[in-house]
Amino acid sequence: MTPQPIVHLIHSGGFYGAERMLLDHCLATPGQHRVVFINAPDTLLRRFAEAGVACHNCRCLQSLLGHLRQQPGLLNAHNFKAQVFAWVCARRLGLPLVLTQHGFTPRSLKQKLYTWVSLRLCRSPRVRRVACVAQSIARLHLAAGVAADKLRVIPNGLPEPAPQLPASPSGPPSGEAEIVRDPAQPLVGFVGRLSAEKGPDLFLDALLELCQQRPELKAVLLGEGEQNQALRQRIEAAGLASRILLPGYQRDMQPWLKRLNVLVLSSRTEGTPMILLEAMQAGTPVVAFAVGGIPDVLQHRHNGLLAKPEDSAELQQQIACLLDDPALAEALAAAARVTQRQQHHLPTLARQWDELYRMAREVAPA
User: How many other CB atoms sit within 10 Å of the CB of residue 112?
Assistant: First the structure.
């Protein structure tokens, strides 16, 4: 008997970490995968379709119910709104349900409510398995009363790197084509949404002073978000508009990772960020706050440098440490590449996902 197809549900506004993980997951994990988006932009659907992943867009719960009646499967929901919709659909249509927890950002009252509801859903018998991308996320579920035998920790992973192509003569946009990871002209980068949970303001707290101290240093914030204008105003007020750049969202990060002397993860909260794994695979040295699943991946002075959460002064010190010691940066990057290959290799992790889906199908219906 052919196993049920796996239907992934996600509420998404763009191609970020969870979407990157989901696309790679569909391409690498055994089984027939489909993705159902909730109110996604057409550009996102095209990106999945161009990669060969079947996808569909639903505007509301009623349209999702109608779609799943016609094309049912094992549901895997990937963020809060999708999880609520998936739970209702699983209950009404009798479908098996898995929730994937990428991380939480419970800073506002609304986000705290979302976290509480998500954890309550995980305790429901209707949810057969909960996949957590980091041990810290699994511990949060255990503390909330989710049964241990329902939880599985499966970290994010990357597929094999694509074959090397000749470098584009134009290089990355925004005037950085001449920089090729040169210790004498270093480039420090932030990658992510320009929103509070990702901490671009904390990145600036560290970099403004560092750039003023080091005239050879440049920095770049790659991403889009609601803090864009405020960040630009701070940079202009410091007189650093020509040295701290905001080129916007970048579809292809590989040219940038090859040029960055240091990637900085200044998030206030995280799961296991995909950009961290991409930097490790690319050999880009990393400095990060020790939040969420990051300490599960990086060990201080073994394969990266860590700073206390939201401590921009310490973050600045760790960035300066790598800039001043290229040999240390190279050694940490080499160790990080080994860690990524051994512990965050998607073809290996895909077998764990295949087993999780098998167990979810075998659990007696709630």
Answer: 13
